[in-house]
Amino acid sequence: LKVKVVSIDVLVTIAVIGAFIVRNYEESAIVTFLFLFGAFLEQRTLNKTRSAIKELTEMAPEVALKQLKNGEFEEVEIDEVDVGDILLVKTGAKIPVDGTVLTGEGHINEASITGEAVPVSKKKDSGVYAGTILENGTIQITADRVGEDTTFGKIIELVEEAQDSKSEAERFIDRFSKYYTPAVLVLSFIVWIFSRDIELAITILVLGCPGALVIGVPVSNVAGIGNGARHGVLLKGSEVISDFSRLDTMVFDKTGTLTIGNPKVADKEIYADNVYEVLGYLASVEKESDHPLAKAVVEYIGDIKLYTVEKTDVVKGGGIVAHVEGHKVAVGNVALMEQENILLSEKARADIARFEKNGNSLVLTSVDGELKALMGIRDQIRPGVIDDLKKLKKLGVKNLVVLSGDNQGTVDLVARELGLTEAHGHMLPEDKATYIKELQEKGQIVAFVGDGVNDSPSLALAQIG
Q: pTM for the complete prediction?
């Protein structure tokens, strides 16, 4: 009443006080209980939703190593970092702010922002994001954006906004109660004027309390949301349930969602008779590297006789040249082979073209100037995804779209293999969110499927995430 809103709560309060006055204690107790129980259930549902946000904020970096005036680095709270400060990041630490690399090199796992599983190489002048993890190396960075202005901060903000929205049914009840409450109050007043029977007037008030309406929506929401949670499905609000029945577009992130998110050797060709010896040389050299492709090769070869590696030379953006058992072994991409003047036969060139067409990253191995092995490494399609997508089509989902931070060629390949309607590569989190907004403006009901913090804005923005 203080803020000039005559809501259903006003009606209930008058009815309960009135029932007390005419000594109908049971009715006043029942009405009070129903309304408080409805409010409790609603609060409980909201708390479940809020816990998801809490987990997100806990992932945000809390401390940073900041350079002081004397050149020393000291650990400070994240709030004490300002734009332009120089920060030190060591192996295994979270990048505390969005910034630019000043000195040093390393591989950063940016899965929390771009969703890509393969760590990204960073050197001087490379941009870095808050919340990503430096897997190896040590770097110094200048802070460009801090706190809520960082990409990670914006992700949290977008999710919070999305969770504050009410369901269509709740909005309808708010509109309905605006007119309903005054109408019931006027009606009971008219009854009292004509009958002069206060008990009858209050009975009308109690009957007019829309208990079923107020309790019905939260209870059905909680029942649906609770049932979903038992089956591993967390619903971010009741409108999701009604949206699902009208869904016409489903958008997927690629890495870790449609694919496993862990690069593995998918194709190989050996151009030598002494297969085990060549694989032994290859595994020995790759063990020296911590590059994700090297790890995939070592995992694929498995247990094998290893040799002593001497004189290792890392070629930037190419691979490794080393001496093993008196042989010169080069392991890397096509550019490295050309640099080392390795002759690539017609068959090898055809294999390379075929592997690339299948979306592989290539690892070539030469021993003493001759090409001996070719391996294609790629992210594998998640088992069962093809069948799941067919089921969705049968259920009436018209458009199946993939959005990924990966290059367009790889994304097209996955789309062809899975029979998707659209494929878009080179997408940052904000690009994905913009694309979903455009779909919604065209009147489409959109579901977004993703697996990383980087997908949060899209998950929150889509009618279903």
A: 0.52
